[in-house]
């Protein structure tokens, strides 16, 4: 069982195949402290989190706090996640589910309900509907609040800002900043670079992970087509190669709003001119 040592999630040569396709293609990473996995939809972000949570078969090595994942089954307060399938315990109303999960995981239901209230989800609604009857955004807020209320040493949050309005995104970001354990979240939204400047950022593209780079560096980074000697990172995609550089030139990363637009930039002749500055 885990001890009270340093909290950290480590993956080595992590590979996942789904439906015959390789979704994760040899990922190596060590998550200690606060991390963002930033990438477009379909880049493997959620599959990475599902693998670390033990929800999909994988090849390679996953360790949490120095212990192989397979030895942690049933361990309490080691890892929490907001992935919805973890919470499909019984066909009961969401409020009953919250209390049931809290009993099983030693989570704090009062803390969960308080955060949900801040995110616009009231106790009355939870008492009326089952988990799958909630809207996608409300369901994500519900599972995120429960994951944080466990007060685990390590937390994985899959797209926690999904369908939240700007004010609620700021509230949730503040809650994540205050969390005392390891937090690894994924998103395709670039505004987090400005909101969480002290976090480490990994970029996810096509089943690979690049980084980490401090968010404050990426906040002022620009995308240029091709390869650059002074690049913070150079990333290969099926649409082409691009580099992230500090200073002038290219298209500012934070201008994209979401990383889904990277492919549009690399494939559209009308915008590729704005990315000139690198070598192919």
Note down, in words, how this protein is organized:
The protein has 280 residues and is α/β, with parallel strands linked by helices. The protein has a domain at 90-149. It is 30% helix and 29% strand. The chain has ten helices and 14 strands. Strands 6-7-8-3-9-10 form a six-stranded mixed β-sheet, with helices on both faces. It has a four-stranded antiparallel β-sheet with strand order 2-1-4-5, with helices on one face. Strand 1 (9-18) and strand 2 form a beta hairpin. It starts with 8 loop residues before the first strand and ends in an 8-residue tail after the last helix. The model has no long low-confidence stretch (mean pLDDT 90).
- Main beta sheet: strand number and arrangement? 6 strands, mixed
Which structural class should the secondary elements be placed in? alpha/beta
The poorly predicted ranges are: none
Based on CA inertia axes, which overall geometry fits? globular
DSSP strand tally: 14
Secondary-structure element order, as H and E?
A: EEEHEEEHHHHEHEHEEHEEEEHH
Whole-Å distance between the termini? 50 Å
Q: Strand fraction band?
A: 25-35%
| Global mean pLDDT | 90
Rg result:
19 Å
| Number of H- or I-type helical stretches | 10
Write out the strand line-up for the largest beta sheet, numbering strands in chain order.
Answer: 6-7-8-3-9-10
- Residues in helix, %: 25-40%
